[in-house]
């Protein structure tokens, strides 16, 4: 039976809204995997001329290892590459990584590329036209009629609003959709500096891709119930991602955790959960973007989460680092498979907090 046959037309010619359900997921890493200690000893120690504060930042990052498309130990000139060189490398690395990730996600959902009605791609670390979305649709053998959406420059929180947009498509059109989040932050190593924000960025960020498949009215998976957001425009300069002649340069203020702490309780309790008659105590899973150890600590404190509630987030941070937009989807994939409400939450430039309410059914 074709997916369209499962949905009878609603009265007056309107289609009844379908329930968007995540039925497949996957994540992938580029080929180079390095321990945090080796990255410091073999590249960043010299890059920062042994700057003691830089060493402490790397040691206290909460990260054991990271995967990268560019290994600065082997390509030591990366910090001097032009933006054009970095964008050329982005496409070279992103297409096969994205293809592998989407293929795996479709396989877990039991769908073929031709079944997909919408392919959405979120990325803030590279740009090209024709875009990554178009190139991947062609590489994967998707229909020439597939709809495509590219979501750029939203940073670490991009997965959540993208999930909202893809869910709306599935609900209104009654067709499957795929969301791919792919970031190659290793392309943007900056020249040596004593700027603490740059050092923190280089200590935290890594590369990955994550994909989810959503289907209408599926019987098993995470149903997307709601998405909410808040932005504090007065602190927009606390997190930035600027295009320069030497790649993209990150600004990351140490004040970010404190600002997020002002909003996370209100957003989760009042905006996301209360309208659905829920409280944090009833949430069975927390997929919180691990922007850093302090951010996770603040979220746990403000929401009074029990011990172990953020283990999946800490685990992803330790084993993969902060991979920007794919990271919250990686945490979601790591959660234990228990029925009940789940909250996915991420943060980024703006300063913006996005949260989604999901409900798992088996």
Automatic annotation (TrEMBL):
It comes from Streptomyces pharetrae CZA14. This is Type III polyketide synthase. Pfam families: Chal_sti_synt_C (PF02797), Chal_sti_synt_N (PF00195). Residues 84-215 form the Chalcone/stilbene synthase N-terminal domain. Residues 235-359 form the Chalcone/stilbene synthase C-terminal domain. SUPFAM superfamilies: Thiolase-like. Belongs to the thiolase-like superfamily. Chalcone/stilbene synthases family. Keywords: Transferase. The keyword Hydrolase does not apply.
